[in-house]
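Reopening this ticket.

The earlier resolution said the output was attached, but the attachment link was broken on my side. Pasting everything inline this time so it's all in one place.
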Amino acid sequence: MYDFDAGDLSLNFANTQDWHASKKPVENLKSFDDLINWGEQASLLSPELARQLHQQAIEQPVDATSSFDFAIQVREALYRIFSRRYLGEPVPEVDLALLNSVISQAMSHLQLAPSGSEFQWEWSADINGASRILWPVARSAAELLTSDVASDVRMCEDDRGCGYLFIDQTKNHSRRWCSMESCGNRAKARRHYSKVQAS
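Inline output:
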């Protein structure tokens, strides 16, 4: 149901609304339960934890709705940050402030843990609710934005407003569409039609 081909966790989350740049986006996250399902499919939640959170949503519907609404705010902020950066437009300060606030909370719950003879970052065991999804997503966004790969983040150029965000991993950095099978083929067909009409 959900797409995980963008090349980064934060972009995958931003892409949970289809046709994001159009006048009529298609929402794939419609409830707290959908958010939990996405988190499980993204391997951020174990099946057992996902079941617990689904039960929590039943027992505490107001809190679940509030958590879900906040998650959507974060998603939209991420989408605006990456899409406007790609378009060369200023990133809204309010969006960056929201992301920074989530990153600040997330980093305070990271700890070093031994992994053989090495060490790795690990989330503390007391994280619950939507934070188990939002904090890894926010950390991923921060790492992407401060990396050399940030300049390779693209937005599908389909003129209908697909708006899909992805990391261009082609050798010549020439990828322009979410996929050749959908928006890419349509663009090729339109160019061919225009050439035929002009001849």
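Reporter confirms the inline version is readable. The chain has one domain: 9-198. The first helix runs from residue 9 to 14.
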